[in-house]
Amino acid sequence: GTAQLEAEFQNRVAADQRIEPRDWMPEAYRTTLVRQIAQHAHSEIIGMQPEGDWLGRAPSLRRKAILLAKVQDEAGHGLYLYAATETLGVDRADLTERLIEGRQKYSSIFNYPTLSFADVGVIGWLVDGAAICNQVPLCRSSYGPYARAMVRICKEESFHQRQGYELLLTMMSGTDDQRQMVQDATNRWWWPSLMMFGPPDGESPNTRQSMAWRIKRHTNDELRQRFVDITVPQAHRLGVELPDSALSWNPERGHYDFSEPDWDEFTQVIKGYGPCNAERISRRAAAHRRGAWVREAAAAHAAKSRRREED
Ligand code: 3HC
């Protein structure tokens, strides 16, 4: 019976064995995986827009080539993750519709504007740095297809972070104006990067269950703390100030103390009222409409090929 299946499922998870698409799984496990992986995929696709705005304005061919490679990688990450959701029986077209209609989320971080080229460097350094802190543990997530997608994505993510940091090191050894651009971008992206990890554990409705099912391996606050501990020394080496006067090393804790992010801002942004939410969604919807002919052509070609094989 189901009790037996449930017990076997729990034993597999507790033994750190992967759950694969054909294994029995509680319906709630499947739906929370669809929720998290679909929103992760949406984040990758929407995340192409902020940096994409600088493709036509990159200061050199080298910077343009690096940025183009990164934006293409994000598209690929989205495709891996939509493929992982399809193993759970959902249809990619339906997920795109839910994104466009606001019935599914994407990462809050992509609702902020990229005002200067230094933003491209700071996104690589802070946003991809935060994504790495969040995604490395997901390589050990209990659902096989998700964990395997993460392994491939994390390899490319480290290039994303390094190219951003190197871009900033270059600018910091430039003119005062360039140094000020980096500081200004850091000031604007620091707090939204901390919010990427989700609400405080006490206000996170999904964390406890996701930890029990080993979908998540650490809580939101644990990963946020890990990100701060890694990033503060990088800011010192870069020569930028982080915009939090309470930031200081706490020897008793063995971690940096830091101020609470503005959770009202976070709530507003994930409700759709951030600086760029409307623009990101309308551009995604327009791209989906403009791309309809490609989907129709691919489907027609596939149907014709099938008919040819049957003849
Ligand atoms: N942006 C938007 N929504 C967020 C959010 C954020 N930064 N943080 C939390 N939320 C949402 C959750 O989705 C949940 O809403 P839902 O129930 O409608 O899905 C609600 O706020 C409560 O949050 P919880 O902490 O209870 O939710 P989770 O347990 O799902 O934790 C998470 C949130 C840490 C983002 C987790 O879902 C996760 O680890 N997801 C996979 C990683 C991911 O999505 N990363 C996106 C970053 S961007 C990226 O990776 C691209 C890179 O190339 C830059």
UniProtKB/TrEMBL annotation:
Gene3D superfamilies: 1.20.1260.10. NCBIfam families: PA_CoA_Oxy1 (TIGR02156). InterPro entries: Aromatic_CoA_ox/epox, Ferritin-like, Ferritin-like_SF, PaaA, PaaA_PaaC. Transmembrane segments: none annotated. Pfam families: PaaA_PaaC. PANTHER family: 1,2-PHENYLACETYL-COA EPOXIDASE, SUBUNIT A, PHENYLACETIC ACID DEGRADATION PROTEIN PAA. It comes from the Bacteria. This is 1,2-phenylacetyl-CoA epoxidase subunit PaaA. It comes from Lipingzhangella rawalii.
